[in-house]
Q: What sequence folds into this?
């Protein structure tokens, strides 16, 4: 969970605010927290706060002090898988995987 520079933090804050506005009419039985993450690493303020709270609860629940780290790793892997899917989605279908490696 990287800290962000002022420009990135500003962008992530505005993205989280825009997402909050988009879902402001969501039924009050839901808890909504925008989770802004820049694809190269930095997390928005609300994403960091939610992660810290979830990590604390997972550690308390499991008794494993590494549980918060595992949660962060899983989230990071999910983001990287999404990045890979986005990139591979732009590559034209080809005969084999070797063609993809030549393209990259």
A:
């Amino acid at each position: 969970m990287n800290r962000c520079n002022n420009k990135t933090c500003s962008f992530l804050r505005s993205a989280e605010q825009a997402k909050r506005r988009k879902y402001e009419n969501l039924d009050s039985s839901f808890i909504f927290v925008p989770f802004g993450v820049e694809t190269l690493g930095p997390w928005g303020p609300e994403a960091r706060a939610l992660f810290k709270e979830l990590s604390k609860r997972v550690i308390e629940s499991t008794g494993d002090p590494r549980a918060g780290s595992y949660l962060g790793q899983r989230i990071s892997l999910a983001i990287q898988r999404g990045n890979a899917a986005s990139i591979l989605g732009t590559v034209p279908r080809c005969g084999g995987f070797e063609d993809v490696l030549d393209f990259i």
